[in-house]
Write a structure and sequence with these properties.
The structure is a single chain. By secondary structure, this protein is an alpha/beta fold. It has helices spanning about 1-15, 50-60, 90-95, 110-120, 130-145, 150-170, 195-200, 220-225, 240-255, 260-265, 285-295, and strands at about 45, 65, 80, 100-105, 125, 175-185, 185-190, 205, 215-220, 230-235, 270. Strands 6, 7, 8, 9, 10 and 11 form a six-stranded mixed beta sheet that branches. The protein has a three-stranded parallel beta sheet with strand order 1-4-5.
Length: about 300
């Protein structure tokens, strides 16, 4: 179990915690809500992941600390102190910022909890393992920091997207899906309890791995071949090009893959890292649109 937790943490670390991309700009009033209230004075908030940072920007909340990332962070936080990567932030630097709240994600709680507790640092671990849990966290943050208008607008936009998808897939047979989550040199199988697994479920697909309580499992190709999915999704994280090459090599040299219907029918898809992160993020709407094209091609 510790090995799996370590691999999952590494996925998050390598991907900058979720591979998020900024949501598409929109001129509609709903996408740019009027700020409801001035942020209470004295709040000194640190966001330790890219996903949280982008959500705080959408909620129009100031931060005193942000993660170090190769991804472009919101312009709002230009010049804000960087505190290191999500899995191992600089603790002394964090303390120097005198934060009133530090925000991380539940997926990293196992790695970070003791480090923060040793220094008596109060930390909130946000549950971004599914769309519903992410939206619940956004609403809670909005209520706590007087941003309910902004939070409700974000939640409503996702509710509209999910209703649109439900209407599209109504009455259609659900394709079976296998999700492989890879980092350089290794890969896991994502269950329906993983974030990408949740996106697949919300898009109308059926995960071939069901009845599990964890987010990820070790791969057993013989068992997976018996499940014979209609579609295989390959999520590459950390070093996407290298991981895709690893997947290509695995599928080319391991003869068992040629017996999968998904391979025979050319329904193996590589997921774009910036849209399909390891935790929930604001790129989910675009990710759902792409999944619709993969699961239900015209």
């Amino acid at each position: 179990m510790k090995k799996f937790i370590g691999m999952i943490s590494l996925l998050i670390l390598l991907s900058g915690c979720a591979g998020e991309s900024k949501p598409a700009e929109s001129n509609s009033p709903e996408s740019k809500p009027v700020q409801q209230a001035v942020q209470p004075e004295g709040d000194r908030i640190v966001a330790t992941t890219v996903a949280i940072t982008e959500i705080m920007d959408a909620l129009e909340i100031d931060l005193v600390g942000i993660p170090s990332s190769y991804k472009d962070l919101p312009e709002r936080y230009k010049g804000v102190q960087e505190i290191g990567n999500p899995m191992s932030p600089d603790m002394e630097l964090l303390l120097s910022l005198k934060p009133t709240e530090i925000m991380s994600v539940t997926t990293l709680e196992y790695d970070l909890k003791s480090l923060f507790e040793q220094r008596s640092i109060t930390t909130s671990y946000l549950d971004f393992t599914s769309l519903d849990s992410m939206l619940s966290e956004i609403k809670a943050i909005g209520e706590k920091y007087n941003r309910t208008v902004q939070a409700n607008a974000i939640v409503q936009s996702f509710d509209n997207k999910l209703a649109e998808i439900d209407k599209k897939v109504e009455g259609k047979p659900s394709p079976t899906v296998l999700i492989l989550l890879g980092i350089p040199g290794s890969y896991l199988v994502a269950t329906e309890h993983s974030y990408i697994g949740d996106l697949v479920k919300r898009s109308g697909g059926t995960n071939v791995i069901s009845g599990e309580k964890v987010e990820f499992l070790a791969s057993n190709t013989e068992y997976l071949q018996q499940a014979n999915p209609d579609i295989i999704l390959r999520a590459a994280h950390g070093m996407p090009d290298e991981v895709i090459q690893m997947f290509d090599e695995e599928f080319r040299t391991n003869n068992i893959w040629k017996h999968f219907n998904a391979v025979k029918n050319g329904r193996v898809y590589d997921l774009e890292e910036t849209l399909f992160g390891t935790t929930g993020n604001l790129a989910a709407a675009e990710a759902l649109d792409q999944l619709q094209q993969m699961l239900y091609p015209e």
